[in-house]
Amino acid sequence: MKIDHLNALRAVEAAQRLGSIRAAAEEIGVTTAAIGQRIRGLEIYVGRPLFDRTPDGIRPTEALLRAAGPLAEGMRLLAAAHAEMTRPEADNRVSVTMTQSLAENWLSRELGSFFARMPGLDLRVDTSAALAPLGPDGFDFAVRHVRAPGKGQAALRLFGSGVVPVCTPDFAERYGLDPARPALDGVPLCHFDTPTTDPGWVDWPEWCAHFGVAFDPSAIPHFSHFSSGLRVARARLGLVLGGVMESLPLLKSGELVMPFGRGAAVPGDYDFWLLWPAERRLSRAQKAFRDWIEDRAAAARRDLAAMFPELAVPAEPT
Predict the structure, then answer these.
(1) Partner of 192 at 20 to 30 A CA spacing, among 127, 235, 281, 312?
(2) Does 293 reside within a domain?
(3) How many domains are contained in the chain?
(4) How does pLDDT run across 68-116, given as a tens digit for each residue?
(5) Distance between terminal CA atoms of the chain?
(6) Region for 169 from its dihedrals, namely left if φ exceeds 0, alpha if ψ lies in -120 to 50, beta otherwise
(7) How far apart are alpha carbons 295 and 274 in whole angstroms?
(8) CB 88: neighbour CB atoms within 10 A?
(9) Same domain, 100 and 170
């Protein structure tokens, strides 16, 4: 692959993530014409369209949505490599690892308040699928979806977990989705592989069995990255079982809705925890990050309690 294709991949990833060519151009710092040219060049190279052009803007094709997770991960790794080569030697770094979906849909929306509190801090966020280690050779903190902290881990319980069907308002209207009569006949559904051991976590077969809804497994496309779920829902391609915490900002804004109501949520057995090595003495920057995320998690719990009372949990240091 030519180096030019890296610029094109960056343009495609930004346009898909941000939902518009204009926003991608502003983020990258080039003209909208340049972004459009890069996208068209990559479409020619791969031999298929990556976006559908509509009067309302662009929508990612299914081919692009399938590649969205690996593409975002590739951009993240390139950015991390560049940061490592250029980072200053300073004692103000904080590193945290978490799922890509939680980082995109919750953490990224909260970071403005953190940098207002700690300007100049060097925050590194890892969203790789691998279970990254904690400690001197790993990360300072991890946000993980687990039953309880492991041995040797200090912890702060952040918020509960679960799933709920979500889609755009016009998708719900188009398929006549009704909270009073949950039915999936003729409704496009999407499945996302979720690497969790949570026995309470459900996918469409379990959700349908729980609510007594007929289920047709042959009609479900599979995606390999759970983080792609809300992108698919926002692109109006299907009804998605979205994580309640990841979906919460989009539900609050009205961009997504729960077509069968909040009663269609199914809680998980595990919670989200902030973890760090118990024996580590935290630096001033690390303490500031821990205190900040505890504050933002408290706000998230209040929002969850208002929308999903059964999912709200107290934060308990251990």
Answers:
(1) 312
(2) yes
(3) 3
(4) 888 888 888 887 777 666 644 456 888 899 888 888 888 888 888 888 8
(5) 49
(6) alpha
(7) 12
(8) 7
(9) no
Evaluate whether 3 touches 41 at the Cβ level (below 8 Å): no
Last residue of a domain, one of 82, 101, 128: 82
Structural domain range at position 190: 162-267
Do the domain assignments include residue 317?
no
200 CB-near residues (< 8 Å, 6+ apart): 162, 266, 267, 268, 269, 270
Q: What confidence tens digit (pLDDT) does each residue in 19-72 have?
A: 899 999 998 899 999 999 999 999 999 999 999 998 888 999 999 998 888 888
Q: What is the CATH number of the domain that holds 105?
A: 3.40.190.10
Q: Could you tell me if 156 and 277 lie in one domain?
A: yes
* Residue among 117, 150, 163 at smallest CA distance from 262: 163
102 close to 246: Cβ distance less than 8 angstroms: yes
Q: Are residues 207 and 251 in the same domain?
A: yes
Instruction: Give 126-192 as a 3 state SS string.
Output: ECCCCCCCECCCCECEEEEEECCCCCCEEEEEEECCEEEEEECHHHHHHCCCECCECCCCCCCEEEE
Entry pTM: 0.66
**Which of 82, 103, 138 is the endpoint of a domain?**
82
Q: Is residue 318 part of a domain?
A: no
Residue 71 to residue 46: CA distance in whole angstroms: 14
CA dist 288 and 158 (Å) reads: 16
In a domain? residue 178 = yes
CA angle 95, 140, 315 (to 5 degrees): 105
Helices (H), the chain: 3-18, 21-28, 32-46, 62-86, 100-102, 108-117, 169-174, 204-211, 229-234, 244-253, 284-307
